[in-house]
Write a structure and sequence with these properties.
This protein has 4 helices and 13 strands. With about 190 residues, it is of the alpha+beta class.
Length: about 190
């Protein structure tokens, strides 16, 4: 009886993967496509971030499926692909490649299957990975509850909650940027 040895996947393997995925513990982990509402929410966040980046001349905004390669974290994670993100640099010499390093700001928009205790634990684990990698602010965006939870690296267990009638921010990661919560979810 022989046992097959499986080689750990690398960032180069992730480049060749068809579809959205992240590299975790030497495995390419496919990420499910999202539904209409979560996608529209992520798009609105990204569009507003892009407008801010263009107006200030600082950073770049990215849509869903952008790859961020990071040194292997204790969890085994080596990449992120947030739903919307912002990065201030440095940018890769080859603009066709993943960004080397974590996003400055990441927005994770919950999809239909992202509710319940198991999903909350999975999301908290990924958020901890973001902070371990160096991301300053992570949003947990809830289209069903129509609220945004803002987590900061310097206070990872004390989210600020934004809801209807408020403007959400990503300070200090994205200085001066605000978006109306009502706009995100309408």
């Amino acid at each position: 009886m022989s046992s097959a040895t499986q080689t750990a996947a690398t960032i180069d393997d992730l480049y060749r993967h068809d579809g959205k995925a992240e590299l975790i513990a030497g495995r390419i982990v496919p990420l499910m496509p999202t539904g209409r509402r979560p996608n529209r929410v992520a798009f609105r966040i990204c569009r507003s971030l892009d407008d801010h980046a263009e107006a200030t001349g600082i950073g770049e905004a990215y849509t869903d499926n952008m790859g961020f390669a990071v040194p292997r974290l204790p969890s085994g994670r080596e990449s992120f692909s947030p739903d919307a993100s912002y990065f201030v640099g440095p940018f890769p010499a080859n603009a066709m490649r993943f960004v080397q390093g974590p996003p400055t700001f990441a927005a994770e928009v919950r999809s239909e299957g992202d509710y319940g205790d198991a999903a909350d634990a999975r999301i908290a684990g990924k958020r901890a990975d973001y902070f371990e990698a160096g991301t300053a602010v992570v949003w947990d965006v809830d289209p069903v509850g129509r609220r945004i939870l803002k987590y900061r690296a310097d206070a990872p267990d004390r989210p600020e909650v934004f809801s209807a009638g408020q403007d959400a921010d990503a300070e200090p990661a994205v200085a001066g940027w605000r978006i109306a919560v009502d706009r995100v979810f309408d």
